[in-house]
Design goal:
Strand order of the largest sheet: 11-12-14-15-16-17-18-19
CATH topology of the largest domain: TIM Barrel
Number of strands: 19
Bound molecules: ligand C2E, magnesium ion
Structural class: alpha/beta
CATH class of the largest domain: Alpha Beta
CATH superfamily of the largest domain: EAL domain
Number of helices: 25
CATH architecture of the largest domain: Alpha-Beta Barrel
Largest sheet: 8 strands, mixed, barrel
Shape: rod-shaped
Length: 659
C-alpha cells in the first residue's frame, strides 16, 4: 500500500468526527445554531466535493457485501469495450497473416480459427463457424494422424511444450498440402484451457526440398538411387541386421562390353542401354531391395535376407537371365551381359566400405573368369591364389583408369655395325605400390581378360606417339615399334583409332611398326588378312612377333601381309648349340626367301650378335645393347651414340662402340 491509501481514510475519519462534534454542539447550544449550521454546510460542501460519497465507510461496507455501485458498472463496461475493441483489432490482424491461428479445446476440438483456415483447407464455406466444435484431427491426412495425435498428447500431458511437426491437411480438393504446425499450451489464470497453434502452408517449400533431396540422392540419367543414398541404406541395414540377426548382400554389377557398345553405337545409345538395364534389373527386385547406380556401367544391389546366403547367388543369376530375355524381347541390337561380385554382411565384412570393396574384388575376379560370371567373395577366399589375382587385378584396373601405365623403349640396332639404331620398341610398364613392377607378361593377359586391352593399347600408343612426335631424341629417323594385341587388332575401332592418332601427332604410318603375334591366325586367316591388309595399305610396317612360339607355320606368314619376322628369344637363346643354329638358320633363309626382313630379340651378348649377323639377320634387339628404358634415358642413350659418332644433329645413325 502507498501513502495515499492511508491519508484518504484518515481525512475521512477526521471529517466524520468533526461532523459528529458539530451535531452535538448544535444540539447542546441551539442559540449558536446559525453559526453551527453554516459551519456544517461549509464542511459538508467540502466533503461532498472531495468525493465523500465515494469513500464513505458505508460504500466500503456495501462493496464488502458485493453490492456494486453504478460507477463500478460504468467502469466495467468501459473496460469490456476497450478489451472487445482490442480483441477485434487482434483478430483483424490475424486475418492478415498467411498462417492460420487455431485454438483447440482439451479434447481436441476446434475452438477458434483465424480467417486463412478456409484457404488452407481449400474450402468453399463462407465462414469458419462451420468448423468450430469439430475435432481437429478430422482435417488432418490419415497417414499423419497418429504421429500428430501422439505429439499433441505429449503437449497436453506436459511432457513437451511447445511442439512442432510437418503434416498433411485433408483438403476438400484432395490435393496434398503440407503444413508446418507449431503448438503450445493455452493457459488462463494458471489453468490449462487447451492448445493454441499456428499452421503454415509449406507445400511449395516441401516439394522443392523433396526435389533437391531426391536429386542429391539419385542418379540423373537412370533416376536410380546414387552412392550417397546407397551408403545411407547400407548403414540402416547394418543396424537392422544387428538387431534382427539377419544378413544382407551387396551385389556389385558391371556390364560386360559396355565400352564397345558405347563406341559402336554412340553415347546416346549407351545411355539408353543403361536406363533399360536399370529398369529391367529394378523390375526384378523386391521393394525392400535397393538398386543403385554406382557410376559408369556399374550398379550395386543391396539385398536383405534372413540367413541363406545362396539367395544372393540365385538373385544374381536370375538378374542375368532376365536381362538377356528382356533385351531380346526389346529387339535391342545392343547385347550386354553382366559380371557380378557378391559380398555378405556380416560374414565377409563389418562395414559398408569393406563390403563394397570385397564385392568389387569378387566382381573383378568374375570378369577375369571370362565375364558373364558371378563370384561370391567367400568362395574366393577359399582359393587363396584366386584372391591374390583379384587383388592385383583390382589394382591394375585402378591404374588403367588413372592412366598410370608407362612406356619404356628398347633400341633396335642395325646388325651390320651393331651400332646404328634403327628403331625402338615401346614396351608397357606398370608399377604398383603393393606389387612393385609387374611384368607385361602378367598384366597384358589380365587386360585382355578384363576387356581392357583396347584401352591399355590406346594409352600406350598415345604415350609412345606423343614421345615420338616431340623430336626429343626418339627422332623420326627410326621406327617406333608398338605391340598390338590380337584382340585389339580385330576390334573394329583399332584402324580408325590409330589413323586418327597418327594424324593427331603429325606422324606418318611409315614411321610406325606394329608387332603382332602369330596367334592372330586363330581368329581365322581371312579375318586376320582383312585387318592386316588395311593397315599395310595405310603404310604401317607389320612385324610378326615371337615367331616360332605359336602353332602357325611359315606358310601362314606367306598368306598375310607381314614385312618382317621377329625371331623369338627362345631360339636366340639356343643359337650357340648346333641344333639351335640350324633352327635359326632355317627361319632366316625361309624369311629371306619370302622377302621378309629379320629381327632377333633377346640378344644378350656379343657372340650371339655376331652369329646372327653372320646368318643375315638385319636387326638386333636385346640387353647386350640396352635394356628397355624410360623416354629420357633412351634420349640420353641416343645422344651418347651420336656423341661417339661425332654427329650432333642426327641421333638416328650413331655408332655404338662394340666391346
Ligand atoms: P615382346 O614384344 O616379345 O617384347 C620383348 C620382351 O623381351 C620384352 O619383355 C623385353 O623386355 C624382353 N627382352 C628384350 N631384350 C631381352 C634380353 O636380352 N633378354 C631377356 N631375357 N629379355 C629381353 P617385356 O617388356 O617384359 O614384355 C613382355 C611381353 O609383353 C612383350 O613381348 C609383349 O608381347 C608384351 N607387351 C609389352 N608391352 C606391350 C604393349 O604395349 N601391348 C601389348 N599388346 N603387349 C605388350
Ligand atoms: Mg614385341
Ligand atoms: Mg617378342
Amino acid at each position: 500500500m502507498n501513502r495515499q491509501t492511508y491519508i484518504e481514510p484518515a481525512i475521512r475519519s477526521i471529517a466524520g468526527g468533526f461532523i459528529v462534534i458539530l451535531g452535538t454542539l448544535i444540539y447542546v447550544f441551539p442559540a449558536w445554531s446559525w453559526l453551527w449550521l453554516s459551519l456544517l454546510f461549509f464542511v459538508g460542501l467540502n466533503l461532498f466535493q472531495s468525493g465523500f460519497t465515494k469513500f464513505c465507510m458505508l460504500e466500503k461496507l456495501l462493496k464488502k457485501l458485493h453490492f456494486r455501485s453504478e460507477l463500478d458498472e460504468i467502469r466495467d463496461l468501459s473496460q469490456a469495450n476497450a478489451e472487445a475493441e482490442a480483441g477485434a483489432a487482434f483478430y483483424d490482424t490475424l486475418g492478415l497473416l498467411n498462417e492460420v491461428v487455431i485454438e483447440l479445446s482439451q479434447d481436441g476440438k476446434l475452438a477458434f480459427l483465424s480467417d486463412h483456415w478456409l484457404q488452407l483447407l481449400g474450402s468453399d464455406h463462407r465462414s469458419n463457424a462451420h468448423f468450430l466444435g469439430r475435432p481437429f484431427m478430422v482435417f488432418v491426412n490419415k497417414q499423419d494422424r497418429e504421429s500428430l495425435g501422439f505429439l499433441l498428447h505429449a503437449l497436453l500431458s506436459g511432457d513437451r511444450d511447445p511442439v512442432s511437426m510437418r503434416f498433411r491437411m485433408l483438403r476438400e480438393d484432395r490435393l496434398e498440402h503440407w503444413v508446418e504446425g507449431n503448438f503450445a499450451l493455452y493457459r488462463k489464470q494458471g489453468l490449462v484451457r487447451g492448445i493454441r497453434g499456428v499452421l503454415r502452408d509449406v507445400t511449395e517449400a516441401y516439394v522443392q526440398e523433396k526435389r533437391i533431396s531426391h536429386m542429391a540422392m539419385h542418379d540423373t540419367l537412370t533416376n536410380l538411387p546414387n552412392r550417397t543414398y546407397l551408403d545411407d541404406r547400407i548403414g540402416e541395414e547394418i543396424k537392422r541386421s544387428n538387431i534382427n540377426g539377419s544378413k544382407f548382400a551387396l551385389l556389385f554389377i558391371d556390364l560386360d562390353n559396355f565400352k564397345q557398345v558405347n563406341d559402336l553405337h554412340g553415347h546416346k545409345s549407351g545411355d539408353q542401354l543403361l536406363i533399360d538395364v536399370g529398369n529391367i534389373l529394378r523390375a526384378n527386385l523386391r521393394a525392400t531391395d535397393v538398386l543403385a547406380r554406382w557410376g559408369g556401367d556399374e550398379f550395386v544391389v543391396l539385398l536383405p535376407f534372413s540367413q541363406d546366403v545362396e539367395i544372393a547367388r540365385k538373385v544374381a543369376s536370375e538378374m542375368m537371365r532376365k536381362l538377356q530375355t528382356n533385351l531380346e524381347k526389346m529387339d535391342s541390337d545392343m547385347y550386354v551381359t553382366l559380371s557380378i561380385g557378391i559380398a555378405v554382411y556380416p560374414d565377409d565384412g563389418d562395414s559398408g566400405e569393406s563390403l563394397l570393396m570385397l564385392a568389387d574384388k569378387a566382381l573383378f575376379y568374375a570378369k577375369s573368369q571370362g565375364r558373364n560370371n558371378i563370384q561370391m567373395f567367400s568362395d574366393l577366399q577359399t582359393h587363396a591364389t584366386g584372391f591374390e589375382d583379384v587383388d592385383m587385378t583390382s589394382h591394375f584396373v585402378a591404374a588403367v583408369k588413372q592412366n598410370l601405365l608407362q612406356v619404356n623403349y628398347q633400341p633396335v640396332m642395325d646388325a651390320n655395325d651393331h651400332a646404328s639404331m634403327v628403331g625402338v620398341e615401346a614396351l608397357a610398364r606398370w608399377h604398383d605400390d603393393k606389387y612393385g613392377w609387374v611384368s607385361p607378361a602378367s598384366f597384358i593377359p589380365m587386360a585382355e581378360n578384363l576387356g581392357l586391352i583396347n584401352e591399355v593399347g590406346r594409352q600406350i600408343l598415345e604415350q609412345a606417339m606423343h614421345h615420338f612426335s616431340q623430336r626429343s631424341g626418339l627422332c623420326t629417323g627410326v621406327k617406333l615399334a608398338v605391340n598390338v594385341s590380337n584382340r585389339q587388332l580385330v576390334s573394329d575401332d583399332f584402324y580408325p583409332m590409330i589413323m586418327a592418332m597418327v594424324e593427331r601427332f603429325g606422324l606418318m604410318p611409315g614411321q610406325i611398326k606394329l608387332e603382332i603375334t602369330e596367334s592372330i591366325a586363330l581368329h581365322g586367316v581371312e579375318q586376320a588378312r582383312g585387318h592386316l591388309q588395311k593397315l599395310s595399305d595405310a603404310g604401317f610396317t607389320l612385324s610378326l612377333d615371337d615367331f616360332g612360339t605359336g602353332f602357325s607355320s611359315l606358310s601362314l606368314v606367306h598368306e598375310l601381309p607381314f614385312d618382317e619376322i621377329k625371331i623369338d628369344i627362345s631360339f636366340v637363346r639356343r643359337i650357340k648349340t648346333p641344333e639351335g643354329k640350324i633352327l635359326v638358320r632355317t627361319i632366316v633363309d625361309m624369311g629371306h626367301a619370302m622377302q621378309l626382313a629379320l629381327v632377333a630379340e633377346g640378344v644378350e651378348d656379343r657372340e650371339t650378335a655376331d652369329i646372327l649377323r653372320e646368318m643375315g639377320v638385319e636387326m638386333l634387339q636385346g640387353y647386350y645393347f640396352s635394356r628397355p628404358m624410360p623416354q629420357e634415358e633412351c634420349t640420353n642413350f641416343i645422344r651418347g651414340l651420336s656423341a661417339m659418332d661425332g654427329t650432333s644433329a642426327a641421333p638416328c645413325s650413331p655408332v655404338l662402340p662394340v666391346a
